[in-house]
Amino acid sequence: MLFLVDIQVRKPETLDADAWEALTQAESDYGMEARRAGKQLHVWRKAGAYATLAVWDVEDNDELHTLISGLPLFHYLDITVTPLVVHPSTVRWEQIQAGGA
Amino acid sequence: MLFLVDIQVRKPETLDADAWEALTQAESDYGMEARRAGKQLHVWRKAGAYATLAVWDVEDNDELHTLISGLPLFHYLDITVTPLVVHPSTVRWEQIQAGGA
Amino acid sequence: MLFLVDIQVRKPETLDADAWEALTQAESDYGMEARRAGKQLHVWRKAGAYATLAVWDVEDNDELHTLISGLPLFHYLDITVTPLVVHPSTVRWEQIQAGGA
Amino acid sequence: MLFLVDIQVRKPETLDADAWEALTQAESDYGMEARRAGKQLHVWRKAGAYATLAVWDVEDNDELHTLISGLPLFHYLDITVTPLVVHPSTVRWEQIQAGGA
Amino acid sequence: MLFLVDIQVRKPETLDADAWEALTQAESDYGMEARRAGKQLHVWRKAGAYATLAVWDVEDNDELHTLISGLPLFHYLDITVTPLVVHPSTVRWEQIQAGGA
Amino acid sequence: MLFLVDIQVRKPETLDADAWEALTQAESDYGMEARRAGKQLHVWRKAGAYATLAVWDVEDNDELHTLISGLPLFHYLDITVTPLVVHPSTVRWEQIQAGGA
Amino acid sequence: MLFLVDIQVRKPETLDADAWEALTQAESDYGMEARRAGKQLHVWRKAGAYATLAVWDVEDNDELHTLISGLPLFHYLDITVTPLVVHPSTVRWEQIQAGGA
Amino acid sequence: MLFLVDIQVRKPETLDADAWEALTQAESDYGMEARRAGKQLHVWRKAGAYATLAVWDVEDNDELHTLISGLPLFHYLDITVTPLVVHPSTVRWEQIQAGGA
Amino acid sequence: MLFLVDIQVRKPETLDADAWEALTQAESDYGMEARRAGKQLHVWRKAGAYATLAVWDVEDNDELHTLISGLPLFHYLDITVTPLVVHPSTVRWEQIQAGGA
Amino acid sequence: MLFLVDIQVRKPETLDADAWEALTQAESDYGMEARRAGKQLHVWRKAGAYATLAVWDVEDNDELHTLISGLPLFHYLDITVTPLVVHPSTVRWEQIQAGGA
Predict the structure, then answer these.
(1) Is H45 close to J2, i.e. CB distance below 8 A?
(2) How much is the average pLDDT of I66-81?
(3) Are I28 and G92 an interchain contact pair (Cβ–Cβ within 8 Å)?
(4) Do J68 and A45 touch (CB under 8 A)?
(5) C-alpha distance from I6 to closest chain J C-alpha (Å)
C-alpha cells in the first residue's frame, strides 16, 4: 500500500552543529534500512530546498506511522502524508504491455 | 530530469456529460502515449480524490511544458510542478547495492 | 484500517432542485450500504454546516478510494482524507480494562 | 454532546527532555482518566504525525473547556474544536437496525 | 450554551432579484422568531460588509444545527461556528457586583 | 460604538512562570476596570482555547486603540478587530417589542 | 474617525456590458458625492489592479457601513475595513511644526 | 524603473472559443508592441502552467498601471505586481566588469 | 510616486527592554526626518494593533527601498508594499473643483 | 534552462552580528562567482524587503539544487523555485527582429 510522504526539514537555531550532524547521519542510516527492507520505494529531493518527497510501500497505516515517527529528525520535520492508489492509466498500460502492444 | 506534477481535476458545471467523457478519454489516451514514450515514469491517484500525482522524466523545462500544456483537460486542472533531484540516500543505496551489501 | 474523511458539500447553483434531491437521496442510500457492510464506522454532521466527518474502516487505500469516489455527490464535495492509527492511550486503556482496573 | 478535537503537538525546543517526558506521561494519565470517566469516546493518532483526533462526549461547552484546558500539554498544542451532531444517516441506520433490516 | 456564529452572505449571480428579495425577507422573519424564542441573544452587522456576527443561546449542538441549517439563506452562507464559555473575568465581575464593589 | 475584538494568547516559551502569572493577574485586573467603566460589554472564552472574544463599546477608534494597546499582555496577543453596527433585525425586533408584539 | 477601505472589484462573467457600464458610472458618481461631502478623504488605485484603497472620514461605524453598503457595485466587491487612529509620530510632527522646527 | 508582473490566466467557462481566440491574439499583439517600445524587458512562461512572469521597465507607477490595465485579457487575469530595485550584487558585478576582472 | 507601506511590528522575545526602547526611539526620529523631507505623506496606526499604514511619496523604487530598508526596526517588521496611482475619481474631482462645482 | 528563484531572508534572532556579517559577505562572494560563471543571469531586490528575485540558467535540476543549496545563507532562507520556459511572444518577437520589422 503506497503513500507519498512530503517532508520539509526545519533546522533548529538552538541545536549545536555536532548534534545536528549526528541526527542527519542517523536519518541517512535509517533511510538505508527502510530502503533495504523494501519499505521506501522512491525518494527524491526537491530542487533548491531542504525537503524530500518519498513513496513508501507499507502493510497498513500502522506500519507507516511506526516508520515515519521513528525518523531520527521526526521532531524537526513538517510532514504531509497522502495515501495513494493505482491509477487507472497504469492498469491500462499494463494491459497494453501484457498484450505486446 | 524529473518533476513531480500534482494535478487536481476541476470538473466544470456547465460542460455536458458527453463532452466531458470525450475529454477524459482523450486524457487517458494522452497518458498512454506519454507512458509509452518514457516521459511519464510513475502515476498514482490520490485516495478519495479526483487528483493525480505523477513523476515525469523529460529533457528540460520546455519538454515538460509542452507535455503538460498539451493535456486535453489542461484548462480544467489545478497543476503544481516540483522539480526533483536525486536524493543523497539513493546514491548511497546504489553504492551499497553495487558493493553487494 | 481507519481513515477520517472530512466532507464539505458544495451545492451547485445550476442544478435543478429535483436532480439535487435525487442525488442526496442516492447519497443517503449509499451511506446505508456502507454502514451495513461495516465500512463506515462512524459519521457525524458538523453543527451549523452542510458537512460531515466520518470514520471509515477499509482493507486498504484502494478500497477507500473505490468507496469514496463512488459517492453519488462525489463531484460536489471537498474531501480531506486523514489516515489514522490506534492511539497509544487506547492500547493502555484496553490493558487497564483487561486487567479489571 | 459530541465534539471532534483535533490536536497537533508542538514540541518546544527549549524544554529539557526530562520535563517533556514528565509532561507527556501526565498527558497520558490524564487521557486515561477522561476515558474512564466516559468523557473521551474515541481517540486516534494521525498516521505519520505527532497529532491526535478525538471525539469527546461532554455535558456542555463548559465541561469541554474545563477538560481540554486542563491537558498537561495545553500550552504546547494547536487545538481545533468542531461541535458535532448526529447525522441523519445514523438515525436512518438505527431505524433499519431496529426494524430487523 | 453559547455559540458565536459568523456568517458571510454570498449573493448568487444567477438568482433573480425577486427570488433573492423573498429569501432575504424570509431570513429576516426567521431571525425575528429566533430572537423571540430567546435563541439568538445578540446580532451585529460587520461594518462595510454583507456579514453578521451573532451569539446564539441553545440547549445543545443539535439545537444549534437545527436552527442554523434552517436559515432560508443557508445554501448562500459561509458559516463559522465557535463554541463559547463563560470567561473567568465575568465570574470575577459578577462576584464584585454581588459584593457591592 | 461597538467592536468585536478576537484575541488568541501566545504564551512565550522564555518567560518564567512568575512573570507570566504577574502579567495574567494584571490582565484580569485591567479587564475588571474596563468592565466597570462600561467599555467592555461582553467577553467570552472560546471553548478549548486560550482565546477570548469580547465586544467593546467605545467613543471612537482612538479610545479602542488606547484600551487594547494598554492590555498588559498586548505583546503576547494575536488580535483581530472587527467594527460592528446595529443589525437591521435588531431594529425590527425593538419595534416589535415597543409595539407589544 | 478614519478607516482604510481596501476594495478589489470582481467583474461578473454573466452581466452584460451595458449593465456593467451603468454600474461603474453610478459608482463614480457616488464617489464624487462622498468626496464632496468630505467623507472620502483619499482614494488611490493599486497599480496594475482593478482595486482601490481609500481613507474614509466618518462619524462612526454606522455611517461607514451606510456609505460602503450603498456603493452601486457593493455586491461585486471584496472589501476589507481597517479602523485607523492618529499615529504618535503625527502628534510629534505637529508639535515640531507648531514649534517652528 | 523595474517591476515583476506575475500573471495567472483564468480561462472563463462561458466565453465561446472564437471570442477567446480573438482575445489571446490581441494579447499577443499587445505584448509585441510593449516589447517593441522597450516597456517589457523579459517575459517567461511558467512551465506546466497558463501563467507568465514578466519584467517591465516603466517611467513610474502610472505608466505601469496604464500598460497592465490595457491588457486585452485584463479581466481574466490574476495579477501580482512586485516593485524591484537593483541588487547590490549587480553593482558589485558591474564594478568587477568595469575593472576588467 | 506613491506607495502604501503596511507594517506589522514583531517585538522579539530575546531583546532586552533598553535595546528595544532605543530602537523604537530611533524609529520615531527616522520617521520625523522622512516627514520633514516630504517622503512620508501620511501615517496611521491600525486601531488595536502594533502596526502602521503609511503613504510614501518617492522618486522611484530605489528611493523607496533605501528609505524602508533604513528603518531602525527593519529586521523586526513584516512589510507589504503596494504601488499606487492616481484614481480616476480624483481626476474627476479635481476637474469639478477647478470648474467651481 | 531557466528558473526563477524567489528568496526571502529570515535573519535569526540568536546569531551574533559578526557571524551574520560573515555569512552575508560570503553570500555576496558566492553570488559574484555564480554571475561570473554565467549561472545567475538576473538578480533584483524586492523594494522595501530583505528579499531577492533571480533568474538562474543551469544545465538541469541537479545543477540548480547544487547551486542553491550551496548558498551560505541556505538555512536562513525561504526559497520558492519556478521552472520557466521561453514565452511564445519571445519567439514571435525574435522572428520580427530577424525579419527587420
Answers:
(1) no
(2) 97
(3) yes
(4) no
(5) 11
What are the boundaries of each domain within chain G?
Answer: 2-97
Cross-strand pairs, E8: E51, E78
E79: nearest CB among C11, C13, C48: C48
pLDDT tens track for H36-86: 999 999 999 999 999 999 999 999 999 999 999 999 999 999 999 999 999
Give mean pLDDT, residues I69-95: 93
Residue of E nearest to F93 (CA): E32
Q: What is the 3-state secondary structure (H, E, C) of chain H?
A: CEEEEEEEECCCCCCCHHHHHHHHHHHHHHHHHHHHCCCEEEEEEECCCCEEEEEEECCCHHHHHHHHHCCCCHHHEEEEEEEEEECHHHHHHHHHHHCCC
Cβ G92–I32 below 8 Å, yes or no?
yes
Q: Shortest Cα distance from D93 to chain E (angstroms)?
A: 18
Size of interface B-J (CB pairs under 8 A): 32
Residues of A in contact with C64 (CB under 8 A): 83, 85
Handedness of CA J44, J80, A10, D26 (dihedral sign): positive
Cβ-Cβ contacts under 8 Å, C62 against chain B = 47
What is residue F19's predicted lDDT score, i.e. its pLDDT? 94
Q: Which residue of C has its CA nearest to D1?
A: C47
C-alpha cell at D85: 451532531
Is residue B51 within 8 Å of B45, Cβ to Cβ?
A: yes
Place of cell 519499505: A39
Contact residues for I24 (Cβ-Cβ < 8 A; gap 6+):
I73
Sequential DSSP letters for F68-88: HHT-TTGGGEEEEEEEEEE-H
Q: How confident is the model at residue F92 (pLDDT cuts 50, 70, 90)?
A: confident
**Under 8 Å between Cβ of C11 and C78:** no
Searching chain F, which residue's CA lies closest to the CA of residue E3? F46
Q: pLDDT tens, F55-79?
A: 999 999 999 999 999 999 999 999 9
**Which triple of cell numbers denotes residue C96?**
487497564
- The pLDDT score that the predictor gives to residue C100 is 59
Chain H: residues touching B (Cβ < 8 Å): 11, 13-14, 45-50
| Contacts of G74 by beta carbon, 8 Å cutoff, 6+ apart | E50, G68
**Identity at I100, one-letter amino acid code:** G
Q: Residues in chain E with pLDDT < 70?
A: 100-101
pLDDT band, very low/low/confident/very high, at H97 (cuts 50, 70, 90)? confident
Residue of H40, A97, F3, J66 whose CA lies nearest to G60 = F3
Q: What is the pLDDT of residue F32?
A: 94
CATH of domain H2-97: 3.30.70.1060
Q: Which of B9, B14, B47, B13 is nearest to B28 (CA)?
A: B9
Task: Give, in order, the Cα–Cα distances in Å from J17 to each of I18, J12, J14.
Answer: 18, 10, 9
Written as nine digits, the cell of E4 is 458565536
